Amino acid sequence: MNSIEIKNLNVKIEDQSILKDLCLTIPKGEVHAIMGPNGSGKSTLSKVLAGHPDYEVISGSAKMDETELLGLEPDEISREGLFLAFQYPVEVPGVSIANFIRAALQARLPKGDSIKAVDYYKKLYSKMESLGIDKTFTSRSMNEGFSGGEKKRCEILQMSMLEPKYCILDETDSGLDIDALRVVSEGVNSMKNSGRGILVITHYQRLLEYIVPDKVHVMWDGKIVRTGDKNLAIELEKNGYDWIKNEAVVA
Amino acid sequence: MIKPSNIEIDREKGNFHYPTSSYAFDAGIGLSAEVIKYISEVKNEENWVLDHRLKALSIFEKKPMPTHWASKDLENIDFDVIRYYLAQGQQPSRTWDEVPDDIKETFERLGIPEQERKFLAGVEAQFDSEAAYSRMKEDLEKEGVIFVGPTEGLKDHPEIFRKWFGKVIPSSDNKFSALNSAVFSGGSFIYVPPGVKLAQPLQAYFRINAENFGQFERTLIIADEGSEITYMEGCTAPKFETSTLHSAVVELVALKGSKIQYITVQNWSNNVYNLVTKRAIAEENAEVRWIDCNIGSKLTMKYPGVVLKGRKSRGEVLSIALANDGQHQDTGAKMIHSASETSSNVIAKSISIGNGRSSYRGLVQIPGHLKNCKNNTECDALLINSESQTDTYPAIAVKGDDNSVQHEASVSKVSAEQIFYMQQRGLSEAEAMSMYVNGFVNDLIREFPMEYSVELKRLIDLEMEGSVG
Questions:
Q1: Distance between CA atoms of A15 and A19, rounded to whole angstroms?
Q2: What ipTM was estimated for this complex?
Q3: Can you give the pLDDT at residue B133?
Q4: CB contact under 8 A, A162 and B425
Q5: CATH (one of 2.60.40.10, 3.30.70.1450, 3.30.470.20, 3.40.50.300) for A3-90+164-250
């Protein structure tokens, strides 16, 4: 059972149903993409899996390998091995990237153990180099004054440093120029090649030219209404979502 | 949103005390001329010092509580139940071995001899009213540096200290400076001769060990021309059932071209009234820097000031205040420019947790006849919980076309999204809070000596534990 397995997930926020009997399985070593119009519940799904306290889970389950994620604290879910790359990464003023990632790694160690500074910086600098991030970046405050592309690179840097089992990328491609898109995609592909399960949430087929998905799911009104291969993404790009909506309504 | 706090602070190091019953000198309970005569007699003081004390007492009795502008909470101080002088009859020991065992154990738990071994040029440790331990490296003594308590300072070196004693902060400055001037005991009197630059800091620890006790140390530092000194003080007290009063007076005199840096890290338990008057005079081209970290206490009122008396003198206050549940940190800075080409800088950061309240009071005065004076003031407040409070009272009186003043203030809140983001990376809610707070004060902490920034970070982590429910 090496997968994230979501079964009949129903979620509300402020009395409004957002996810409705959603089912989805993402096995390790595969890339799955979720596409869908605004308001279909894509971002909600990512936040619920990450344990965001604003959402109310009515029923269903979401297991990561053998662990039930629903009901765990966000930090427990993170340490279990789920990483969420945020659509809008948040600023943490005065906390440098290097210190932040170090604290996150430290939180994964048993009490009393500590990270060796030399090893840590060696690893950090090599990851930064492969992501095309300048070394001086480490001393900048988390996301403070970053451009859109810098923020997304910083998310991927954290992802590759924390080595999660599963990754969710929530609209990581939004606001990226073509170079940044390539760098980010390389980062994600190397995660995939090392056997991790990846869920990519996106509006555009463009990203999927760089991160080739094993499966593409279309989400509408809180559930997955269609699943296909990468060609489904191309079809959506060409024809929009209306035909899916119509199908869903008819069904 | 972040839930209201449910604070149980473990003050770890500071929260222990010994039922020391063997006080050889005890001025009893309450305040009177007799109590003051007793203190003066025990200290074998000269008449002028006793007169100074008695005069201060009558000023104290006449002055009203400053509740017309300050917190009404001051009315809860009952001056009649406080003990004003308690000592075990010790002379400050010169070697650690001579310190009485129970006091030694207290300070060892606070890590004081360890601190001394590490990096200090001199250290004094005060237990209730009197210094229990005082030591300075011999080479400094040879250079003429004086580091003693006020009794010894006024008795043995009147030619140096009497001239400035009570001149920077007169007894009549405020009710609590009057109280201190009446009953002061312990503290540091320091003189640094011309041109002597202390490479390592001098340090004092103040420790309240007895319940219902008032600690009134008195500090006077004189940096002679071209000299440099860094002085650091640390304060702790155990948790008692009833309130305790700490009311110090600290006077700094920076003569021509000298530099004084005064660093305070206080970690009082949360029923200490901490009402301290701190002021410096900076002569020509001198520089005074106050670094003030206020953690703990029930109510702290403290506004370190610099009177910029000589041309081109510089004054700076860097302060961090952390108000936890049930606490009020009323802190700030005063910059009195009284010569041309003087400059001052104030950076104040406060953090309010739970229903804690932090207030900033600032005073900047630049009269119109001065030229080329500058002040920069920044005060930033961070609110952790929805019921946390902050307020700012800047008083800026700047006149004259050639002078400039810049004032910036900000209030920020930790957002639930920021905490969620940090938690998503694996930090617990408390760790995330702690990290956020450390980030908030980070640019200030960088200005501190290494040892103190580590200590401060640890204290902040402790305060943030349990600040989220």
A1: 12
A2: 0.96
A3: 63
A4: yes
A5: 3.40.50.300
